[in-house]
Amino acid sequence: MALINEIKKYYTNIPIWVTDCLAPFYYMIPQKKRYGTVFESQLKKLEEVESYSKDQVQNLINKQLILTIKDAYENVPYYKNLFDKKNISISSIKEIKDIQKIPFLTKENLIDNKEELLSRHVDKSKLQYITTSGSTGNPVGFYVDEDSTMKEWAYTLYLWKRVGYRPDSSRLLLRGKTFWAQKNKSKNWQYDALRRELSCNIFDLNNDNLEDYCKAIEKYKPEFIHGYMSATVILCKYIESRPNKLKHQFKAVLAVSENVLDNQREYVEKILNTRVFSFYGHSERLVIAGECEYSTEYHIEPLYGYAEIIDEDGNSINDGSVGELVTTGFCNKGMPMLRYRTGDLASWSNKDDCKCGRPHLRLAKVHGRWKQDVLINSDNAPVSLTAINMHSDVFDKVIRYQFLQEVKGEVVMKILANRDFTNEDYSVILKELDEKTKGKIKYRIDLVDNIPLKPNGKYSIIDQRLKVSQF
Questions:
Q1: % of the chain beyond a pLDDT of 70
Q2: Could you report the per-residue pLDDT of 282-319, keeping only the tens digit for each?
Q3: CB 335 within 8 A of CB 142
Q4: Which listed residue, 264, 333, 336, 449, has the most CB atoms within 10 A of its CB?
Q5: Given phi > 0 = left and psi -120 to 50 = alpha, else beta, which region is 391?
């Protein structure tokens, strides 16, 4: 058992002064002891696969896929019944293309068959139970292996290494998690020497708090920002308006959990003069992909899981068209999931081999949610966030915005603006929106005092009230 796993169980109840005192001794412990053998073993495998040829990676995926499907059929009641009912012979699954014989696993299937999806060879009491945040309106619960956390951390550090992150690097945390000083002292920020984290409350990003955060950043000098892109953008807007800007240079922004829009990336990189680095993963832990150090395309990690992209009819997409990401995980033996429909939109890269030399499958983009991050125009057609992504300088005066749709072809854009926002800016935004969607959506702009975050601190750019599946 990794030492870090044991500490995490009780961490938020330990006074910050205690953890600060323990910090020097903690970092004297070798990394292998801190993170455990599961972490070390996984990291070693990842580094080994990075040097594989394209054929070797393809063979690895093929082997892992067949083993996962065979194990699911032999040990998971849901798949035994499904294969037998659909007359799918396990011996007919010989290569990657054969996976298309297997029906998709939906979130509804997962909810209705949770116990039947557990492997008979795994002790349920040793599994971790996880629930999603419910961004689709229906939270989903499932089980993962007990060593899942440290495997996930090995993958995360491996991906972050592309922009210079190391296990002992320090971070500014802009996420929705409650920290000790916030929980026990009602403070909006704290520096944790044991974790080397400067945590800030993102639920109250007013100017007074943002100034305190900037002063703390200048004092503790965290190397990386790790958090939600929406919170990072607000911090950058404050830094831009600050007389002395920010007397600190970050090495990179590690963007997580929210879709990164092009205009957000460009703005943050301009203000902070550093790289925004994003990676794709989800709570179900079936696929993980990290941006390349040479581009913003995502390399899918072959040891973690296999990915497909499908159209609305369930047919495979092999070009650069946008479709739904479908995933099959290799790491979770306790609850194998085959061809799971994630609800996320993505597109394949149509470029030749990557400059970095990795032969992995690559995603050009992750576009958002299939049923949430779209608007419906007057022709009943969905319009994605990518299509309405705007680059106008007028958004430098916008703190946060959100599209609200309750009627097809009509959208209210809520804008939380700064004091420099003018009627001219209002008109420019309306004109750009109209051009983006070819006059097929009628827009209204409402200036508001607040756009609330979700309970977990995440922010939705589209508040979609329509049942998109009907269109």
A1: 92
A2: 888 899 999 999 999 999 999 999 999 999 889 999 88
A3: yes
A4: 336
A5: alpha
Burial classification of residue 470, based on how many CB atoms lie within 10 Å of its CB (0-12 exposed, 13-18 middle, 19 or more buried):
exposed
What is this structure's pTM? 0.81
Report the distance separating Cα 440 and Cα 15, nearest Å: 56
Question: Residues 182-212: pLDDT tens digits?
Answer: 888 888 999 999 899 999 988 888 889 999 9
C-alpha dihedral (169, 278, 130, 305), degrees to nearest 10: -110
Cβ-contact 238, 214 below 8 angstroms? yes
The tens digit of pLDDT for each residue in 393-411 reads: 667 778 888 899 999 999 9
pLDDT at 362 (0 to 100)? 93
Which two tokens mark 312? 């609305």
Tens digits of per-residue pLDDT, 10-46? 666 778 888 888 888 888 888 777 888 888 999 999 9
Task: Tell me the two tokens of residue 7.
Answer: 């500490």
Q: Residue 323 forms beta bridges with which residues?
A: 346
Task: Supply the pLDDT for residue 210.
Answer: 93
Q: What is the pLDDT of residue 262?
A: 84
Q: 337 has which bridge partners?
A: none
Residues 6+ apart with CB under 8 A from 366: 259, 280, 289, 298, 325, 344, 345, 346
